[in-house]
Give the backbone structure.
Amino acid sequence: MIVVRKGALALVLVSAAVVAGCGGKGKPEAPKLEGTVQFGVLAPTAREGELGTRGKDLLDGARLAVDELNRDGGVLGHKVALKIVDDACDPQVGYEAAKAFVSDTDASVAGVLGGVCDDVAEREAGVIDATGLPFLITSATKDGIVGEDSQGAFMMNGTLYQQALSSVFWMNYREAERLAVVQDDSADSKSLARQAIGLIEGTPKLVSLQTAEPGGPSLKVIAAAAVAAKPNFVLWTGGAEQGGKLLKALRAAGYHGTFTATAASEDPAFLSAAGTAGEGAYVMATATGTNTPMAENWAAAFSARYSREPGFDAQQGYDSVRTLAHGIEKAKSTDGPKVIKQITTLDQNFVNSLGVVRFAHDHLLLYDNRVILKVKDGEFTWERSLRTDSLG
Amino acid sequence: MDRAKALATQACDTASASAAAAAADPDNVAKATQAATDAAKCASAQANADAEQKSLDGVNGGIAAEPTNPTLPTDVHNPAAGAVKSDNIEWLSNSRGLPNSVTNPTTMNGNYAGATFMHFENLGYDFLLGDGTGGLSIWSLKNPEQPQFVGGVGADKLMQPTDAHGAADTAARFYEGENPTVDSRRKLAFLARDPRSFGTTGGVTGGRTGLYIVDVKDPWNPEVITYHWVPAGHTATCINDCRYLWSVGPANNGSKVAGQPQDGAGVLHPEWTGVPSFVTDVRDPAHPYTYANPVDMKRNNNTTAYTHSVDVDENGVVWTSGFGGIRGYYTNGLHTDPTTGQQRWASATDPVPYAGGSVPSLESSAQYAQYSIEHNMYHRTQAASDTSSPTVTTADGRTIKKSDLAYITQENTVSCTSTSGGGAGRFVIANLADSYGGKAWESQWDASDPSKRYFLEKLGDYSPKDLPGSNNGAGCSAHWFTVVGDMVAIAFYGQGTRVLDVSDPTNIAQAGYIRIPAVSGQQPANNASAAYWHNGYIYVADYSRGVDVLRYKDKIKGVVQPKVCWNSCDDSQTALKTTSATGSAGGDVPATMSLTLGATAAFGGFTPGLANDYTASTTANVISTAGDGALTVSDPSSTATGHLVNGTFSLPSALQAQASSAGGAGGAFADVGGAAAPTSLLTYAGPTSNDAVSLSFKQHVGANDALRTGTYSKTLMFTLSTLNP
């Protein structure tokens, strides 16, 4: 019996909208170019500890960029100043903080940068996106914060999805044929593993998948089980210390293939846990002023100014200010929609330490900021950028 | 889809059991190993099911409906006055599309180097996409005999600013994406950019190469997603179901130093005599990724040379053509690498050699691989459904396996009478039989030593010189071709288009021809670049005339394969709608099943709190030559199947459908079923032509149904099928 099918067609049935009354906010008027041009900053400025350090890094990186801009005449002939609002890395506080840029009548804010924490950046993006202002999300990595429907929000850092995509590129470079994945019990680790597995589509072949979790098998057993599957590439998507211990166990179990850990393992805890077994391991990290040779000069300038090494957020703050300023200069205006339009089409000569800065239709970096570090003599050392080679 | 889900469920059930067993005995490595292996199988099966679902959900059927009264771009229709042709070729129409230059929009000259096709599921018909110096043009094939130029991306939209790879583009002349490739599932078109684009018309040194990715889901308004630099750019082809592209050529690649191609990291390679193939990952078209190290290296007897074209065969084997011959590669799956004897997994970035070698040409030994290039090729395959003999017997009684046949263009663009480079390019057929053991990859070969080159056996060749329809003084080289059954449609520059009978590979016969001369002030002479069999017609991309549509009226010899592959072997490359035949001439009716839908059906506004039955309607047109037929409708979505949805909300009552027509037998309103249980709308007891179908939809809304602000909609699948074709 033969069945011939032809003409499979789709038809959309559309009902008219059931309209409810709810007026939207009007677009803010175009800022008048008087006095300084202000860039809003949303960061955990009042926090202590790691978050406080990150917030300080972000601000100092932004300030460095502002000083450079002002030294060179500012933006459109006007000095640039930062308008800093503490978001505490708390979603509720961040939501209210972002509203400062909605309710303020101060029309001199030409754009906003910030967003250190995922959930906070997500809340902030929703609010600022409705203002018509550009918002450069400096540090968050969560998937779905921006998308093709976003108006003016752009990710300045690669997302988890992009990290999964990059891991597949790296597997090709390493000629991975048989892949073992080990994840921990965190949501990010599992998401990264799941997305990477979804992207490989058969090459390499996934031969082993395990979870290192409390109450689960020991890392020794996990390592032995992974080795039994004869992989030539092991991907670890979890935290740093456990990643180092896993690597140690894998080497002890006789594994000689490629070991690559994702960005969370760029941490001294990974090195100390792995010990000598860490030699030759790869970490797919996020580019920073300290791990990227092309950023050495910038990192030196930062250190000279602030007497400390720049953290990741410092470079993100710096690059975000420059990107915002470049968009304004291209737009020849501080009018939000005009600046956003220019940010979506940044010219191909606008670069940061990794190369050209451009955004794709999905408001993610067209070429993200992944780099490969290799452990040599107990330290993370530069191996290569994981941007598309064709950027030359 | 259901099968994929079932397999995932099965694998994950097994994994759960293994995990439980391992958890109960946490120090048992064997159990942990089994659990890890089963978890990997579960994850892989789940990823596959997710991909299937995503594919089903994301099958981008293109624009939902034709735009109302769109403003169409200006077109020119070149006539074919004075055409020199065989009786079995009928010229049907011409469309210039975008002019060859944006500075001269009224010119009759439409420069098209190549074309391809894309089926638009929502509209129910195909579109033709062609590219040349004017940019990308798109034609509706709603009337396949009269393509309607509906939209495009002009060369001025493809210009790039100054960057690390070149100066700002200055002249709006795209060049030329000679062999455009598409992903019909995602409605994407990919244009290779040659270094001779924009302001570098005189040569290739210093020109910018790369790749444009164009979203064409709305053919009336295509949109460039991105331009991406790649150190190659004469042609590009989707491989591995368009997860990757191989970009190739030209002889130089736009590096700043003549004769020194560069790799993806910008390193110059004077040891390469041309640009090989660079691999770009386009799984995410918004974030393409190109690898530094190319593939198809050392293709000319251990010298890396110019790869000109990539063509995927019906089995997914990727074939390259260029200086030094043809090479076939596996790019997925587990295979034995003939160069090592070891089994390994092939990938787009690390392919496993399959077969191929150099092809004898008319060049002298000293000229070899400098004048006549293996331009493109087609590996003949035999589908499982083709139960004909796997061999062909030649006139002199030799038996040759069909799947050993490679059809090849050897290009040398000179006149038929020229002896430059051994003479004009030809169409040849080579025998792969000796080459499967990786012979072409052996280290003994040396391109510089004529005694150490590996050649395939040439079985036959063809040139139009002195044959009916020839114009010996004009350009006479073979160029792009396509194959149906035993018939080849091929473009031959100034010799126009030829149809060749290759049923005997040792005796290639000209079966038809058309050459269109210039008529002063009216039409340019043809300068045919590519000829494509498609749905019973031949579409010709012409460097001077734009696109011509032809009909070959004689029978198609041989067995038409279910998939007609050239370039990427995309699903839109639909087989000829002619039954296979080897007998005498007669009045055959091409097997035709055509379903065309009318405008989008729209209900009025749903009023909350009021019970009502809302109705909507549209039309369809059915043409069928089958002995019987059935029209069905289904909702392929797994979300509230059969119900209109608005985001996460769905209407409680099922959507109902009904159809009626003069030619078919319909029934009462019935709930729209899922893909596994489509709803019957009409049945046909015999063939029908232009049966006007009224399609009606009914949606009940109850007084207590909660309605969410917004639009309720669903995309439905209509299928016309037969058990008696």
The radius of gyration of chain B is 27 Å. Chain B touches chain A through 108 residues (CB under 8 Å).
